[in-house]
Amino acid sequence: MKNRLTVKKVAELMGASEWFIRRGLQQGLFPWGYAVKTSSKYTYWISPIKFTECTGIKV
């Protein structure tokens, strides 16, 4: 298991759009990851362990 998940992978696992995942991370709505704004772009970090704990979805 890698130390982080991609937005694309999380969107697939949750059956949601990548836009939904990005906006949720930007707004601090998901306890399993966060978004950091660097200049005009965001970088996303999603913990596979916290994701599984919070959602019950195995990675």
Please tell me about this protein's structure.
This protein has 59 residues and is an alpha+beta fold. The protein is 42% helix and 20% strand. It is built from 3 helices and 2 strands. The protein has a two-stranded antiparallel sheet with strand order 1-2. Helix 1 packs across helix 2 (18-26). The protein is globular and about 35 Å long.
Structure keywords:
59 residues, globular
Which helices and strands appear, and what pairs or packs with what?
Layout: H1 7-14, H2 18-26, E1 33-38, E2 41-46, H3 48-55
Antiparallel strand pairs: 1-2
Helix pairs in contact: 1-2
Distance between the termini: 8 Å
Biggest β-sheet: strands ordered side by side in the sheet: 1-2
Total strands: the figure is 2
Order of helices and strands: HHEEH
Number of domains: 1
Counted by DSSP, the helix tally is 3
State the shape: globular
Spatial extent as radius of gyration: 11 Å
Biggest sheet, open or closed, and with what strands and sense?
2 strands, antiparallel
Helix content: 40-55%
What structural class should be given to the helix and strand makeup?
alpha+beta
Low-confidence stretches: none
- Percent strand equals 15-25%
- Residue-averaged pLDDT: 95
Describe the structure concisely for a colleague:
With 59 residues, the chain is an alpha+beta fold. The chain has 3 helices and 2 strands; from the N terminus they run ααββα. It has a two-stranded antiparallel sheet with strand order 1-2.
